[in-house]
Design brief:
313 residues, mainly beta, Beta-galactosidase, Chain A, domain 5, 4 helices, globular, binds calcium ion
Amino acid sequence: MLCNANNHVKTHPRRAWVGGLFSNRWYTASMSRRSPSRPSFAGPIALAVTAQMLASAQFASAQFPSALTASDGPAHFQINPYSGGSIGSGPTCALSGTGAGGLNFLNQAWWWARVDGSDIREFAVVQASPHITAPTDNSIRIEYDNAMGRQWRIVIEFVVTSLGGNAAHLTQRFSITNMGGPAVSNISLFNFNNITLNGTPTNDLATQTGPYTVDFADGGNPLYHGIYEAVTPGSIAVGSSLRNLLANTGIDNLPAGSIASGPANLEVATQWSFDLGVGATHTFEVSYTAIPSPAATGLLAAAGLWAARRRRR
Ligand SMILES: [Ca+2]
Ligand SMILES: [Ca+2]
Ligand SMILES: [Ca+2]
């Protein structure tokens, strides 16, 4: 049954993008008609739930009600509920090769964006009433319509895969489509990750091993690795306060090519810049491979092969 409040009430709340914050404001139908240029938001608080959706969806909710999870054998990934909305610090996560609650290799993996010439800062790509599904047991798909106050459709997808030997591979994909215009120039997109290895966040080390690849190792047990790669090439940075650049007020860009070596509580992020014409879609992808001891050597090679295979596709 499709529930749309527009059909039943003349006055209804709409979610308006106000200075980067979605706020509930009460608009009458006539006010809406007087503001044709205002971004339109389909179905205010309406949540469409069909039998077909329920059959295919593991999650169907107006928010992240609790952790969203995906798993492939012992490889387990979860995204936690967040607070602060688009100007908050985004949802945290956990990635383990030994099941839910296992040793965590990744504290956060999320996306931020900014439109130069329009936005006054970066915003976490979060929105009320996402459509959340699990196309497969090992994936989470979060879909936003009219995202970021524009006529954009954004799909964020996570896929976790067990590589054996307690290693876990996580793919993050971000797809953005301009559904209605206008064309938008100079969009900056950021993928942010807070690395943690061996449960000890403050002693991690980083080495850039390729143009878009960084190999992290634990300072206490160098057999614990985490390999981050921007599958869609972009400018990579490693540091300890990258998220602050995204969550603070003001316009910031990553210190491109700056790779802090640690030991420190390290973060890694990639930045892309692109234009989005009407009807255009762009897709971005990064991967992260959590490799625990003791089978590190063989799995490092396996992770490299995986990345090479992805690049050839
Ligand atoms: Ca560590
Ligand atoms: Ca900023
Ligand atoms: Ca860290």
